[in-house]
């Protein structure tokens, strides 16, 4: 009954060596295998077990990515880690787990985002917004990035409210946007849908992320009514008055 103990001990020792290996020594061997990354890796500090990586790209700026492997998960087929992402405009905490099939599961996510982080993307569509976004109890299961395949998603997004400007009928209008709430869900085609409501649960907008990487937003007339914006048409509050989309993945 003890014949397997030496092998088990050797495997445990091997895992210990891998987990405690300095990341700056491992990274030069791993980097070529990853191909072209969407971000620039500026520095790596720590070990495979517990590390900090500084990354950057034009959209997000500089981010500090910290992770800590969960010890018991190393002995299973589902390695997991606690993840934290920080910058001046972003703070995110979540748990990451990878299955043998390659599915990535993000769970128990809490994200705080300053809307200034979205400014470069929004300005391309003549839109600006202030305030903060918070995501709570975020759970996402992703089986592929290209094409994007989301198997499951849940979570709640809350926008604090703030100043905004956006195009309406070829004009740019200024508005005070109230607090808004969105519940994340998948439609029958696997596209991510975020129906946005006011605090009275009335629809004001619809955000989406399709499996082909296109994201977009639809704005209903009700949002114009809430922000006190004039409208010459006879459309009802559930009519779409503004729609824009952009490929982001």
List strands and helices in order, with pairings:
Layout: H1 5-19, H2 23-34, E1 40-46, E2 50-57, E3 61-69, E4 80-86, E5 90-98, E6 104-114, H3 119-123, E7 128-129, E8 132-144, E9 149-159, E10 162-168, E11 171-177, E12 180-183, E13 185-186, E14 192-197, E15 203-209, E16 214-220, H4 221-226, E17 240-247
Antiparallel strand pairs: 1-2, 2-3, 3-4, 4-5, 5-6, 6-8, 7-10, 8-9, 9-12, 10-11, 12-14, 13-14, 14-15, 15-16, 16-17
Q: If you had to describe this structure to a student in words, what would you say it looks like?
A:
It is found in: Cell inner membrane. This is Type II secretion system protein N. It holds the Pfam family T2SSN. One of its GO terms (cellular component) is plasma membrane. One of its GO terms (biological process) is protein secretion by the type II secretion system. The protein is α+β, with helices and mostly antiparallel strands and 249 residues long. The protein folds into two domains: 1-85, no CATH class; 103-249, no CATH class. Helices cover 15% and strands 50% of the residues. The chain has four helices and 17 strands. The protein has helices spanning 5-19, 23-34, 119-123, 221-226; strands at 40-46, 50-57, 61-69, 80-86, 90-98, 104-114, 128-129, 132-144, 149-159, 162-168, 171-177, 180-183, 185-186, 192-197, 203-209, 214-220, 240-247. The strands form two sheets. Strands 1, 2, 3, 4, 5, 6, 8, 9, 12, 13, 14, 15, 16 and 17 form a 14-stranded antiparallel β-sheet that branches. A hairpin with a 3-residue loop joins strand 1 (40-46) and strand 2. The longest helix is centred in the N-terminal third of the chain and has 15 residues, at 5-19. The protein is elongated. The model has no long low-confidence stretch (mean pLDDT 82).
């Amino acid at each position: 009954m003890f014949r397997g103990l030496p092998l088990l001990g050797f495997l445990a020792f091997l895992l210990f060596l891998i987990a405690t290996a300095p990341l700056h020594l491992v990274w030069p061997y791993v980097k070529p295998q990853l191909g072209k990354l969407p971000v620039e890796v500026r520095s790596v500090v720590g070990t495979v077990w517990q590390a900090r990586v500084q990354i950057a790209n034009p959209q997000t700026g500089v981010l500090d990515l910290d992770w800590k492997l969960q010890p018991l998960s190393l002995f299973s087929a589902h390695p997991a880690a606690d993840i934290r992402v920080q910058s001046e405009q972003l703070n995110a905490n979540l748990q990451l787990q990878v299955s043998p099939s390659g599915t990535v599961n993000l769970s128990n996510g809490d994200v705080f985002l300053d809307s200034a982080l979205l400014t470069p993307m929004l300005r391309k569509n003549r839109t600006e917004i202030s305030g903060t976004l918070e995501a709570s109890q975020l759970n996402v299961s992703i089986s592929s990035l290209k094409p994007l395949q989301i198997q499951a998603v849940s979570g709640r997004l809350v926008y604090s409210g703030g100043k905004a400007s956006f195009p309406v009928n070829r004009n740019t209008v200024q508005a005070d946007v109230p607090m808004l709430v969105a519940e994340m869900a998948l439609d029958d085609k696997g596209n991510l849908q975020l129906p946005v409501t006011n605090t009275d649960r009335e629809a004001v907008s619809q955000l989406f992320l399709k499996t082909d990487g296109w994201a977009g937003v639809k704005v209903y007339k009700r949002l114009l009514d809430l922000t006190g914006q004039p409208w010459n048409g006879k459309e009802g509050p559930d009519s779409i008055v503004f729609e824009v989309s952009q490929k982001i993945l």
